[in-house]
Structures are given as C-alpha cells and as structure tokens.
Design the sequence.
C-alpha cells in the first residue's frame, strides 16, 4: 500500500485533505521572530497575518532539513507502506536537496520500501489543481506509476497567474531590483506573474493600475483556457475579497455559470 503526501505549499485546503484521507507536510514560516508550520488554513488567522503585513512586518519562509522528512515518513514506512509525494516546484526551494538526502537515508533503513516524489512544477493554487486531481486518482486506486504519469502530463495542462499590489515584496524576495521595484510602485505598474515550464516564477505581462491588471487575468483565461467546465477554476486572494469577487463575476459573465468556480 502507498500513502499519498503533499506539502502545504500546494495550498490544498485542509478540509479537502481530510476528506481525501491523505497526508501533508507542513512548510514552516516565521513572522515577528516566531515560527509556524502552515496548516492549510485549519487554524491560521489570516486576518491577523495580513494585518501584520500591512504594518510592514515581513514573514520569512524556510525549507525543511533532512531529519524533518525522515521523521515524517518513518512511521508510515515502519507500517509497511510506500510513499508517493506530490511536491510544489522543486526549482523554487532548496528543501528538495534535503528531501533527496532523507530518501537516501531511509532507503538504507527500509530497503524494501519505495519512496517516490513527483514535481508539480508549480506552487500555491497552481500546484493545488495538480495535487487535487492526482489525489482523486489515488483514491480511485491508481498505482504510483499511474499517479506520476498523470502529474507529469496534467501539470502541462494547468497554469496559474497572479498579481501583486506592492512590488517591494518581489524585491525582498530577490526577484526584482530595488530600482525596478521603486519606479514600478511609483508608476503603478502591476506585473502579471506566472510559472514557466521549468517551475520558475516569470513576468508574463506588465500593465498599469490595479483594475486593469485584474481584467488582464480575465484576458489570459480567454486566451489560454480550454475545457474550462471539466476542471476547477480557483481564484485565490490575499485578503482582498472584493477584487476576487469582481474577477469571479467577470468570469461568470464571460463563460457562464456552468463552471466549477
């Protein structure tokens, strides 16, 4: 038997994880010097979290070390289970080098057990789409190889676009120079950001103004969306519900109400 794992950077909401009966690895973050393990929204106070960010308090993410992975997987391996782990983009974190070390160590202890991981090449909601569909395959009885093949194929059929209101956070993350962030903020430039085929964040387009950037997300859906009624469309927001509702209504007006939105 295999046990299905994801990590919390894939953002599959906790209630779906519990309903599917799968496992998840909590990725850590720190804010105001205190570390938390992200719980997929089960007990996270998002209002408080975003209020702190608006005050200028910057959260810091970090990866896991090899012992964290060993401690997570060992109880399941001891019970005679194999592991299938669907991950967020390996290109976005050094934590996967630690995962490789952990797997090598565990194989020495559990030579008869199989630990397999497969990269969604995405993060957050983009990874959620892939993980959720893969988990459904798992619940239907798909083998590990079938799940890996599905993820490798379906990840090329899903995509994520997002916008940010403050370019200085991209600068803080090392993805934008200080000069570009400063002038971009002053001029009201909003980059449309996506994830490329290598699982790396990339600027898809640049527009002026918040409303236009939201409407550009709709344009990208028009251009690139296919078989929209067959899979979920997910709108995620960082404590800006009005903007999310605005986009949702625009999508319904354009594509009709027969969507899983």
Sequence:
């Amino acid at each position: 038997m295999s046990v299905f794992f994801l990590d919390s950077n894939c953002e599959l909401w906790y209630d779906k994880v519990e309903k599917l009966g799968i496992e998840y690895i909590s990725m850590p973050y720190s804010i105001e010097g205190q570390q938390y393990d992200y719980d997929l929204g089960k007990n996270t106070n998002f209002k408080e979290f975003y209020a702190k960010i608006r005050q200028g308090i910057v959260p810091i993410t970090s990866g896991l070390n090899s012992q964290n992975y060993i401690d997570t997987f060992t109880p399941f391996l001891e019970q005679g289970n194999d592991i299938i782990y669907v991950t967020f983009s390996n290109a976005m974190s050094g934590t996967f080098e630690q995962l490789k070390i952990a797997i090598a160590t565990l194989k020495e202890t559990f030579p008869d057990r199989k630990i397999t991981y497969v990269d969604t090449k995405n993060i957050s909601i983009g990874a959620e789409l892939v993980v959720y569909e893969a988990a459904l395959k798992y619940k239907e009885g798909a083998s590990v190889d079938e799940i890996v093949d599905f993820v490798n194929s379906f990840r090329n059929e899903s995509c994520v676009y997002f916008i940010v209101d403050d370019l200085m956070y991209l600068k803080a993350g090392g993805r934008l120079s200080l000069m570009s962030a400063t002038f971009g903020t002053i001029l009201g430039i909003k980059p449309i950001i996506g994830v490329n085929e290598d699982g790396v964040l990339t600027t898809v387009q640049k527009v002026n103004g918040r409303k236009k950037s939201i409407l550009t997300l709709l344009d990208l859906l028009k251009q690139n969306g296919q078989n929209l009624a067959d899979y979920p469309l997910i709108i995620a927001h960082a404590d800006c519900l009005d903007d999310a509702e605005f986009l949702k209504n625009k999508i319904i007006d354009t594509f009709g109400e027969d969507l899983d939105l």
